[in-house]
Amino acid sequence: MSRLFTFGCSYTKYPWGTWADILGEEYDEFINLGQGGGGNEQIFFKIIQTNQKYNFKKDDTVAVCWTFHHRKDVYQINKWMPRPISLAKERAKEHKQILDWFEKEDINPDEQWLKTLGYINVMNTFIPTICNYVCFSTIDYGLGSSENAVKPWHNHETNKLFDHEINQFATKNYDSTFNISQDRDCKNRVSVDIRPANDNGGVDGHPTPKEHLYFLEHIMNITISESTKQKVEEWEQKMQPNHKYKRWLT
Predict the structure, then answer these.
(1) Where are the beta strands (DSSP E) in the chain?
(2) What pTM was computed for the model?
(3) I need a surface site. Which of 18, 33, 187, 211 has the fewest CB within 10 A?
(4) Could you read off the pLDDT of 212-243 as tens digits, one per residue?
(5) Domain ranges of the chain
(6) DSSP codes, 133-157
């Protein structure tokens, strides 16, 4: 029996179908451990906890979507609780603005950066020895862009030590892929008219099921069956603007 275990943030588990739900249709058993707003710490420890509970086997697949490295998680009362972060601050671009936010939120960027690279390194080494492993990220951790070069958490010795972990996603155009929902010029972007409102009254920017399908097929080069594609089409048709979604997938 084939089993799929998926880990990530809201790009992995959301009120409508994500890449994880699509892949899950291709397996006999599917367990989605994604958590909206969660960081890489909860992903890392959930993988360990899930292995302890389910005992990963060679026919299993573990698929991980690493998320933003500056997110902090808190474990309390037997569950992971992501610390709330405003979208505006999370996407802060200016150097001083980022530093001010780190200080206010009591976040050590060097620590968060090092932890994330360490988590990726451990899972790159550990998971392939016991089962199939699919790994990608909501962001490109590569150091090639001028924007990344000025960020405060980059340390030459750390980056040299974790060169593979930093650059393993560099060939994947994640920024445009996971943000096709907000890129009005992207030919694979689905009309904004079907997107529901978010909690702030704006349009929800998470990719739709069909955009997640595009990601799997064209970026990850994963073959999806025609029957699953039909389900994705049905999921897409269920989406309505200005509608507050509950978990409708069955």
Answers:
(1) 3-7, 29-32, 61-66, 73-76, 79-82, 132-137
(2) 0.85
(3) 187
(4) 998 899 888 999 999 999 999 999 888 766 55
(5) 3-238
(6) EEEEESS---S-SHHHHTSTT--HH
